[in-house]
Amino acid sequence: MQLVLGYSPLEVGLAFLPANLIMAAFSIGLSAKLVMRFGFRPPLATGLGLAAAGLLLFARAPVDGTFVVDVLPSMILLGFGRRHGLQPGAARRDERRRPGGSRASPPGSSTPRS
To answer: How far apart, in whole angstroms, are the C-alpha atoms of residue 68 and residue 113?
Structure first.
């Protein structure tokens, strides 16, 4: 964004803010409710599809593009896609790792313990 759209480092950081706010809002339990209702695959596939659409939309941003038209829609799609694509995948990974199903994982459980 700095090279193509001429944004300063601060503007680039602020451009990513909508995606981060969406991910934060959905991390308080909405993604987990979707997984509990529909299972792992539909939210995972939808999330990855939204993230891919956001990246494709972002890749077509012209040199003279504006934030509202060319950057914001892709950041919104990326926010929804990353939240719904990553959370079900992580939950599925944790469920497979722990015997007995979907118990809550302690912090730092991304590394296997013996």
So the answer is: 46
